[in-house]
Structure prediction request, 229 residues.
Amino acid sequence: MPNIKFVKVEKNYQDNKFNALQNINLLIKQGEFVSIVGKSGAGKTTLTKLIYAEEMPTEGDVFYGKRNIKDIKKKHLPYFRRNFGTVFQDFKLLPQKTVFENVAYALEVIGSSTDAILEEVPKILSMVDLLEESDKYPNQLSGGEKQKVALARALINRPDVIIADEPTGNLDYISSLEIIKLLLKINELGATIILATHDEAIVNKAGKRVITIEDGKIVGDQVKGKYVI
Ligand code: ADP
Prediction:
């Protein structure tokens, strides 16, 4: 599993006169749990998008292992992105599909066999404690349950890295804690976790590395809090 490295990264969006990111130098080691904290507009999403090559740096370089994301050919991007599982604030579930089908779909699109799907999906759903909800549709689930489905879908391909961008943004406190706990569990199983959030209080409970960004710059990088959740 590769490290993630940012070297002197700047990011400017064309229609924005401000730098979304400025002089970002960062090493995230394989297997780390890293939170990226900052206000809305600070640059958290931009930073995460550079990691899975959804955006390209304007200056500087982003590496995944030895691979510079600038050198990945467009036709290879879908394969490159299989290294990453992503989770977002708005869940992005398919409303016409059941919980089982939403997770299975991630395997179908990469051509997995029916046997593999029938074996893998229940395993992952039981890991996020949703096996009993397999046949429900997203609109029959709570926000916390929807996010667990999204997490199951992100995990199903066994990616090396999970990127969670404001995964608790639509959740109440108890459900948010459950999602953070699950991310900690997934991290213990070996995946690198990158959690972008404005919710400093919740990551301060995780006892893990917290990188603070303000106006596109890193202004803090330390292990915070105690592992209390
Ligand atoms: P955060 O995730 O911390 O809210 P973002 O990375 O989304 O921050 O945004 C950082 C800055 O870049 C903001 O000023 C935002 O308006 C700008 N920005 C983000 N995406 C785009 C885009 N696609 N086009 C133009 N500006 C953008």
